[in-house]
Write a structure and sequence with these properties.
This protein is of the alpha/beta class and about 250 residues long. It has 9 helices and 8 strands. The protein has helices at about 5-30, 50-55, 70-80, 100-105, 115-130, 160-170, 190-205, 220-225, 235-240, and strands at about 40-45, 60-65, 90, 110-115, 140-145, 175-180, 210-215, 230-235. The protein has an 8-stranded parallel β-sheet. The chain starts with a helix and ends in an 8-residue tail after the last helix. Keywords: Pyridoxal phosphate.
């Protein structure tokens, strides 16, 4: 009897999710932290909506994308496949200002805000979407921090984090939730995440509700949790190394 491809994929994802959960639990225990302190974000970029739907079946409610064009369509497909699931979608990739109006239609959180101009564009987009009845409430955002000073890879400079946080915090359409970063290439992730922890502490001191620290991916989530991450963004370890974009 031929195995149902959907059931086979569900079993693969269930095993991967269990393994990732164990890694997170072990990393939290090693850091003396509660497992409840760290949110798992499933990064479904390049994988089909059917995989995202299966992850919601397995209890994962936080999903992320890094390209607006793919994400909007995928979020709509998942809503059709699993009308009751209502996953929380996050934008984690670099975002151009001209995509702001589109991204606020599907994302509940944008983790990659790295400039005042982008923050302002998102605020205007949220206001327009609210007026059009396309969304209610503010958009949650994180300040993306460049940990190596190479802003071409995304992120604002460490010395500019406070000013950007101030701008976001005083914008009614946006809700400052914390900071996000990607460990630089060629550097020990732990050392980089220690710098992020200091920036997060400064932001949190001024805005106690902005306590989120999004750091750590498939290869370095353990180090990120050791340095205070409250959100790990996991794609490869959950879904595999290759995927086909949603049609």
């Amino acid at each position: 009897m031929t195995e149902d491809p959907a059931e086979k994929r569900r079993a693969e994802l269930a095993a991967s999710l269990a393994a990732v959960e164990e890694r997170i639990a072990n990393a939290c225990a090693a850091a003396g932290r509660s497992r409840d302190e760290v949110r798992l974000l499933g990064v479904t970029k390049t994988f089909p909506a059917s995989d995202a739907a299966l992850l919601t079946d397995l209890g994962l409610r936080n999903l992320a994308e890094n390209r607006d064009q793919e994400a909007g369509q995928k979020a709509a497909e998942v809503a059709e496949l699993r009308p009751e699931a209502a996953p929380r979608w996050h934008m984690v990739g670099r975002l151009q200002r001209n995509k702001a109006r589109s991204v606020v239609r599907w994302a509940e959180e944008v983790q990659s805000v790295d400039s005042v101009r982008l923050a302002d564009a998102l605020a205007r987009a949220v206001a327009a979407a609210q007026e059009a009845g396309e969304r209610t409430g503010p958009l949650d955002v994180l300040v993306q921090v460049s940990l190596d000073g190479d802003v071409a890879r995304g992120g604002t400079l460490l010395e500019d984090v406070d000013a950007l946080a101030d701008r976001i915090a005083h914008t009614g359409e946006l809700r400052l939730r914390g900071v996000m970063a990607v460990a630089p290439l060629g550097e020990d992730p732990g050392t980089a995440f220690a710098r992020l922890a200091l920036a997060a502490e400064r932001v949190r001191a001024r805005y106690p509700e902005a306590a989120d620290v999004s750091a750590g991916m498939s290869h370095d989530l353990d180090q990120a949790i050791r340095h205070g991450s409250t959100c790990v963004r996991v794609g490869t370890a959950l879904l595999g190394g290759r995927g086909l974009a949603s049609p």
